[in-house]
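Chain A, query sequence.
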Amino acid sequence: MRRPRSWALEIAMVVALVAWTVPLFWPSALVHFDIAVRDAADAHRTGFTHQFAVLTNMLGQGGALGGVALGIASIIAWRRRDVRPLLAFVTTYFMAGAVLVMKYTLLRVYPHWPDISQPPYADAAQAVLMTSLEPAGAYPSGHVLNAVVWYGFIVLMVGRSFAPWVRVLFLTLPPLIVAYSTTYLGFHWFSDTPAGLFIGVVIIRIVQRVPWGTVELPLWLEPERRYR
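Chain A, predicted structure.
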């Protein structure tokens, strides 16, 4: 992947995130739309579609994706005798994990609060941010963020061997599929998913900007520099 030349996309994502988040502090039209989407999904979920959504939602599993990304970074680091791919992984991992601060600061109950087996579920007044209800941590969607960040990281590591159209599919399809499945299953509100997308794009773009192949390392990580 080429290093981004402009910060315009990152700025646009941050502005979009703020504009998207603000209406979630009160029972706005966006919150009411979240309720309508959840109820429509609940009313039209069959056994087959439910199982299919569960399977496709795994495309955003952070643990599995992070493991794949770590494996790829480790192989590249071993072949090149260079720790930089692993540093790229660690940086990406901690940036993606930092979303937990936002999730547990803004505090939003999940669509099937308080219990998926005991409707009625959260109404518009309960589905806002900064709730005192528990458990809360729905906003933003970590699954969608994971799909953006980790597939982007994989393309960053090995994307040169992909055809251009394969890179495009790798970067776009998983986040879209996960956004649909996690909303359809009621794991997240509809509005949680764009927030994960906005943050994920900012993270992977920042990671892309670092010249990992040439970034200078401390001597203890690159002792052979002593003899150059």
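Residues 8-18+50-209 form one domain. The chain has one domain: 8-18+50-209.
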